[in-house]
């Protein structure tokens, strides 16, 4: 039984001979500093499932790469977009509380960036999250 199961697992992991394999492209990424006398905020939301248990993290760094302040947060259960939005809000609140006025923001959520810049009008689901940020 074990021998047969092992063989079945190996067979299942083998690529289909009829399938075409797309070559992988390797992209090197690195942190890019903001302009001199500016601060960079990097944020990212994360979750397990969608919706699922969500959290976020972020860091504020100077143009020399010096660590200023960071955060990690737990949001409970929410969608990936809401986790990304809440991560951004958390980072912006932190920057504001530290008196930072020259801020460059970097995040990996195109949906959030497009929603906040008005490229897309599909922000009805996140109205209360966006409204809460305007009230502060």
From TrEMBL:
GO terms for molecular function: nucleic acid binding; RNA-DNA hybrid ribonuclease activity. Coiled coil: none annotated. Residues 35-136 form the RNase H type-1 domain. Gene3D superfamilies: Ribonuclease H-like superfamily/Ribonuclease H. It comes from the Eukaryota. CDD domains: RNase_H_like (cd06222). This is RNase H type-1 domain-containing protein. It comes from Opuntia streptacantha.
């Amino acid at each position: 039984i074990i021998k047969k199961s092992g063989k079945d697992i190996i067979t299942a992991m083998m690529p289909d001979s009829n399938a075409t394999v797309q070559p992988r492209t390797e992209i090197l990424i690195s942190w890019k500093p903001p302009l001199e006398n500016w601060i960079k905020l990097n944020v990212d939301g994360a979750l397990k499932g969608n919706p699922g248990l969500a959290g976020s993290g972020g860091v504020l760094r100077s143009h020399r790469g010096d660590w200023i302040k960071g955060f990690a947060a737990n949001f409970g259960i929410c969608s990936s977009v809401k986790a990304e939005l809440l991560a951004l809000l958390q980072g912006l609140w932190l920057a504001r509380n530290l008196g930072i006025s020259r801020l460059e923001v970097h995040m990996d959520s195109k949906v959030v960036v497009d929603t906040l810049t008005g490229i897309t009008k599909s922000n009805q689901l996140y109205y209360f999250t966006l409204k809460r940020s305007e009230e502060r």
